[in-house]
Amino acid sequence: MPSNLLIKSSQILLVNKLTIATAESATAGRLAAEFSLIPNCGKALKGGIISYDACVKEDILGVSDDLVKKYTPESAEVTEDMANKLQKLIEADIYIAITGLTMPGGSETPEKPVGTMFIHAIIKGKSIPVREVYEGSPEEVVLQTIDRVAQVIIDELS
């Protein structure tokens, strides 16, 4: 069930006749799925790419292998590139890319622990990077990330 924040962000998109597209790694399509449960979302949600594996980031989105190797698949740099490359694949007003570490086994370090999530939003041409560290189960981290995306949309468009 979509959170109140996501519902509010969706309403803002609908009122402003704006569309959104996503490139999701760690959230594995959950952001787009949550948007799809909101009435009338079809007017706003254009679609998305689930790029959980680095090869999808590279082969479908066009993120360079060198960038992934230099910064890791779960990084601000890769997330920004995902958002930029998504613009070439789906026409929309807002682009959201997400990577991160919802559970052990990725590129976690003391500086980038499990729970670190990277969001890159492009809203009407404005680039907005976000890095957050959340605690909780993988699902809790994903849901907190979705709420953070919603808050970014609300903050930028209200």
SSE blueprint and pairings:
Layout: H1 4-15, E1 20-24, H2 30-36, E2 45-50, H3 54-61, H4 65-71, H5 76-89, E3 94-100, E4 116-123, E5 126-133, H6 138-157
Parallel strand pairs: 1-2, 1-3
Antiparallel strand pairs: 3-4, 4-5
Helix pairs in contact: 1-6
Choose one word for the global shape. Answer: globular
User: Nearest-angstrom radius of gyration?
Assistant: 14 Å
Name the helicity range. 40-55%
Q: For this structure, what is the CATH class?
A: Alpha Beta
What is the N-to-C order of secondary-structure elements (H for helix, E for strand)? HEHEHHHEEEH
Largest sheet: 5 strands, mixed
SS elements, strand count: 5
Which sequence of strands runs across the widest sheet?
2-1-3-4-5
Number of helices: 6
Question: What is this structure, in a nutshell?
Answer:
The protein is 43% helix and 22% strand. The chain is α/β, with parallel strands linked by helices and 158 residues long.
